[in-house]
Amino acid sequence: MSKFLQKVLSVTHWTDNLFSFQIERPKDFKFKSGEFVMIGLPDSEKPVLRAYSICSPNWDEKLEFYSIIVENGPLTSKLKNIKINDEIILMSKSTGTLILDALKPGKRLFLFSTGTGFAPFSSIIRDPETYDKFEQIIVTHTCRYKNELKYSEKIINECFDDEILKSFTNNKLIYYKTTTQDISEFNGRITNKIQDESFYNDLKLTDLNSLYDCVMICGSLNFNNELKKLLVDKGFEEGATNKPNTFVLEKAFVG
Length: 255
Ligand SMILES: Cc1cc2nc3c(=O)[nH]c(=O)nc-3n(C[C@H](O)[C@H](O)[C@H](O)COP(=O)(O)OP(=O)(O)OC[C@H]3O[C@@H](n4cnc5c(N)ncnc54)[C@H](O)[C@@H]3O)c2cc1C
Hints:
By secondary structure, the protein is an alpha/beta fold. The protein has two domains: 3-91, Translation factors (Elongation Factor Tu (Ef-tu), domain 3); 100-251, Rossmann fold (3-Layer(aba) Sandwich). 24% of the residues lie in helices and 30% in strands. A six-stranded antiparallel sheet has the order 4-3-6-1-2-5, with no helix packed on it. It has a five-stranded parallel sheet with strand order 9-8-7-10-11, covered by helices on one side. A hairpin with a 2-residue loop joins strand 1 and strand 2 (18-24). Helix 4 (150-161) packs across helix 5 (163-169). The site of flavin-adenine dinucleotide has 25 residues, from strand 4, strand 5, helix 1 and strand 11.
């Protein structure tokens, strides 16, 4: 598969182990909002490549990624040191299951994420097609600590403040953030909050309903499995591009 070598345009460290960075987008690099791509550092003959969700919407001229720093992680222990003008390997083909084409048309789209699992949703909530297809988009982000929500808060602020973005997000996009360790406005795991109904009560929403709702999930394997079971019990069915249905899910990492 062909690859590109792209310059780093900016780097922002959000916490000791979370950062985001932007790279130049090759003119002929196409992707669907919500997809991931393999990236790496050109630091050896056999570079370590890892899957990264693209945070940018597909109309953006730059490509943004949001990354964890894993202690002694083969890629991220080096990637954490990148600076402006450094080069990143970008494989030419993006892929993934968190795409609008894999979902049937519906009224509400729920995007449930934990940790860096917010990354693909950062792309989807800034894509006008999402708002053409759904009347309301509810994006949730759960982390252990409040400072781990800084990246999603910044993206959401952009959705509501940017003149172009707000023309389609206004009155349609809802953001719900919860923490499991720090005390904050909303506490607890989203799966518990769906089950005890506090999620619906906090947002004044009616319950998830497979007749008119669609769902995307991106988090740890346990989180994905727990939420999948909850949805299947409510009559939701997993979709794919060749057979769109009411939910899709993807792991935010392997481990
Ligand atoms: C489809 C897909 C999309 C991904 N998108 C992203 C993304 O947008 N941002 C991102 O930071 N990572 C993402 N990852 C994970 C990424 O591919 C790497 O695992 C991560 O960058 C760490 O690389 P590493 O070589 O340093 O350590 P690895 O050897 O890859 O990972 C070591 C261990 O660290 C843990 N870990 C890895 N990634 C994470 C994570 N994101 N959150 C919590 N624990 C983790 C796991 O337990 C894993 O076994 C994605 C993975 C998949 C499968």
